[in-house]
Amino acid sequence: MIVTDFLVIGSGIAGLFFAIKASNYGDVCVITKKKRTDSSTNFAQGGIAAVFDEDDSFENHIRDTIIAGAGLCHEDVVEMVVKSAPDRIKDLINMGMSFTLSEEKKRFDLGKEGGHSHRRILHSGDFTGREIEKTLVDRIKQIPNILLLENHFAIDLLIESKLTKQVPNKDRCFGAYVLDESTGEVKTFVAKFVVLATGGGGQVYLHTTNPTIATGDGVAMAYRAGAKIANMEFFQFHPTALYQSNGVQSFLISEAVRGEGGVLRLPDGKTFMEKYHPLKDLAPRDIVARAIDVEMKKYGLKHVYLDITHLNGDFIIKRFPQIFEHCLSNGIDIRKDWIPVVPSAHYMCGGVLTDKNGESTLSNLYAIGEVACTGLHGANRLASNSLLEAVVFAHNAYEDCVKKLHETKTVKIDLVAPWKYYTYIDPEEMIMIKHNWDEIKRLMWNYVGIVRTDKRLERAKRRIELLKDEIREYYIHFKPNTDLLELRNLTNIADLIITCASMRKESRGLHYNLDYPTTDDSMWLKDTIIFRKPGGYL
Ligand code: FAD
Ligand code: SIN
Predict the structure, then answer these.
(1) Confidence (pLDDT) at 423
(2) Is the whole model's pTM more than 0.70, yes or no?
C-alpha cells in the first residue's frame, strides 16, 4: 500500500501542473499508465488562448467562448477562466516554458483559430504541446517530493461508503487500485486528495486525433464510483485531420493553418464554407466539421482539401514545421499541394462534473483537464481553450486542496481491502478483446458520430448492452491487463455518450440529431447530467 498526500492520476498538462504546485505543501505521487510523456498534451499544436494583444480584451475572449459553446457555457466559469489566463501563462513561463515571440522579440507571436475574433493563441511553432510537456516533465525531475510512476494503470477509485458500508450524505474518495504493469501486481494507493487528470476518450471512435492513452478511463472510474458526469453527447470532431486510410491516431492539421489563411476546397477547387457561416473557414469547429461531412456525403468524397499554397513557402516551414515535415514524409509538399483532410474525433467536452475548484461531486476527488466538465466549453469548445482550462483548474484545485489539507485525515488504512485477484488468462478470449475494441470504435463512428438519429442511437445502445455483458464476463474471470481495462472503460464511455445523446431531444453545438434538427430554446443552459449508485463492474 502506498500512502501519500496527493495522488495525481495522469501526467499531461493538468496533472503535472497540479503536481508541481501541490508539492510545495505535501507529498505527491503521480501515476501514469504508459510513459510520462504519453498524453494528448504532447500532441497539441495550435497553442493556448489568452488575452495579451492590446487590441483584444477579456470581454472579447468571453464572448467568443460563449458563442462557440452554443448556449451551454456557464458564464461565471468562462469569466473566471479568461481572466485567470494571463497569470497561468506566467506560471507556465516561470516553470520554464517559452512561447514563440514576434520578429522584434518584444511580444508574443499570437496565432488565430476558428471562432476567435482576435489573435490570441500563444504557441511554440506547431509543437506547443510537446514543449509544454517537456517543460513540466523537466521541472518535476527537480522536485524530490514528487514520485512519478510510469506504467501504473488506475483501475478503480476507492470510496468511503464501500469501506464503512454506510451511505454518507456525500461520499468521499480516498485512493485507487492501480495495476503495476511491469509486475502485474495491483497496488492500493491511499491519499488525502485524489486528482483525476486522465485526459479524454477519442479512442472510442474509429478515427481520432487522440493518442492511444485516450480511452476515457477517468470518466469511467468516476462514474463507477458514483460521481456525476455531464454533457457526454458533445464530442468534438476536429475538421481537419490528414486523410489516411489507416492508423489508430490521425495526424492533425492545426486550425492555425486556416488562421493563417488556409482555405477548404472541393476536388474541383470550389470553396464551400461561405454557404455555411459568415466566418467561412474560421467558423466554430462544430460548424466546419459538419459542413465538411455534408459536402463529403453529397459528392461521395473520401476527403476534402485544405489549400495554403498561396502563402509564402518560407513562412509555412517556419510557422508549421511539424505539419510541413509530416506531410512531406507522406508525399505532400504543402507549399505546392493541397492537403487531403477529413474530420476526426478530437475532444471530449463532457466529463466529470466539477465546481470552479475542480472538485467533483465526491469529496476530495478532483477532475482537471479534459476529463472534467467544468462549464467552460458548453456544447462546443473554442479552439485552444483546452490547455488553458487545464492550467486554470489545476491551479484552482491545488489552492482548494491546500486550504483543506490540515483538516483532512487519511482513512484508516487497515480497513482498506487489498485487490481480489483473478489470475486466469485465456489467450483465445484475449483475441476477442481486440475484436470488441474494434467493434466499439466502428459502432460509435457509424451511429454516434457527427450526425445522429434516434434510430442510430437505439441501435448503438442495443449493441453496447451486449458488449457490456461480454466484457463483464471477461472482467470477473481474467487477470487484469491494459487491453481489457481500457476496453471496459471505452465501453463505459461509449454507453455514457449514447445515453446523453439519447436524452438530448434537440440539436445544439456538437450534438446534431436529424430527428430534432433545431435548437430548443427551453434547453438554454441545461446540461445533461447522469450518475448512478457506486460499485459494479461497468
Ligand atoms: P492528457 O494530456 O491527455 O494526459 C492524460 C494522462 O493521463 C496521460 O498521462 C495518460 O497516460 C494518463 N492516464 C489516462 N488514463 C490513465 C489511467 N487509467 N491510469 C493512469 N494514467 C492514466 N488543446 C488546446 O488547447 N490547444 C491545442 O493546440 C490543442 N491541440 C491538440 C492537438 C491534438 C492532436 C490533440 C489530440 C489535442 C489537442 N488539444 C489542444 C487538446 C489538448 O491537447 C488536451 O485536451 C489536453 O492536452 C488534455 O490535457 P490533460 O492533462 O487533461 O490530459
Ligand atoms: C489545433 O491546433 O487545431 C488544435 C487546437 C485545439 O484543439 O484547441
Answers:
(1) 67
(2) yes
